[in-house]
Amino acid sequence: MRKTLIAGNWKMFKTTAEALSFAEAFKKLYKDAGAEAEAAICAPFTQLSALKGAFAGTGIKLGAQNVHFEEQGAFTGEVSPGMLVEIGVDYTIVAHSERREYFGETDETANKKLHKLFGHGISPILCVGEKLEHRDAGMEQEIVSGQLRKDLEGLGAGHAASLVIAYEPIWAIGTGRTATPEQVDSICAFIRRTACSIFGDEAGAQLRILYGGSVKPGNIAEILEIEDVDGALVGGASLVAEDFIKIVRP
Q: How far apart are the first and last CA of the chain?
């Protein structure tokens, strides 16, 4: 049975003081709601240590938004897997479309990061998704399949249970435009079939698939009804505790 995961991606928002204010409000709401879904906050690096302490004992998970694929070295501005382990990070986002578009993230670097994260016991949230021109050309399966096969190269069935794949159509991220339930159902079922072809049917059935792209309280219930969707990767709506809890417990 795959447990629902609702992961908030704060992107480049909040100071540490603001993050702690959110944590105090959200952990009370989370407890009071008796939420059954697993909740995670993927915050900027500067806030991770403070949030780890604030969320202690609550069951709320902590995620990073990026990682380097080397253990150490002359990589100014980067953070290694071992540094995240020291903080106690549970998840790390890999190859978000903004990382691919603005910072040169490729399928090759994503693959290296996945291998390193698994080696350190951190669960990756791997992002895949197509641009609008690919969707309009009917190429979404070709694009997503290509990403998955390159990103997951060299990984085996034993990795599937702790792997999370987030389908984020690039044309629906931060635009207020959401893919239709039919579109999400079709591509997430395709992702599941592709994972099964890579890992085997049993292992592929275990991994969790999230939908991301203008997820908010008003559409989460419909999204979670889709068979192969096991949760959501939430952007702007995760920044306010009162909004995020409505997604964690719709």
A: 20
Strands (E), 73-196: 91-94, 123-128, 164-167
* Tokens representing residue 151 in the block: 């990103």
Please state, in angstroms and rounded to a whole number, the distance separating the CA atoms of residues 210 and 7.
9
Which residue in 73, 74, 119 sits closest to 92, CA to CA? Answer: 119
Residue 231 CB contacts under 8 Å (≥ 6 apart), including other chains: 4, 5, 6, 7, 37, 38, 208, 210, 211, 224
Which fold, 12-30+39-221+242-248? TIM Barrel (3.20.20)
Tokens of 139: 């190429």
140 is catalytic: no
Catalytic residue among 38, 68, 96, 140: 96
Q: What is the mean pLDDT of the chain?
A: 95
pLDDT value for 172: 79
Give the domain ranges of the chain. Answer: 12-30+39-221+242-248
Residue 115 among the catalytic residues: no
The dihedral formed by the CA atoms of 148, 127, 47 and 101, expressed in degrees to the nearest 10: 100
Give the residue carrying structure tokens 């719709």.
250
pLDDT at 175 exceeding the cut of 80 = no
Asked whether the whole model's pTM tops 0.90, one would answer yes
pLDDT in tens, 213-249: 889 999 999 999 999 999 999 999 999 999 999 999 9
Residue (of 134, 110, 136, 135) closest to 124 by Cα position: 110
Tell me which residue has tokens 């079709």: 186
Active-site hit among 38, 98, 105, 168: 168
- Other beta carbons less than 10 A from residue 121's beta carbon: 11
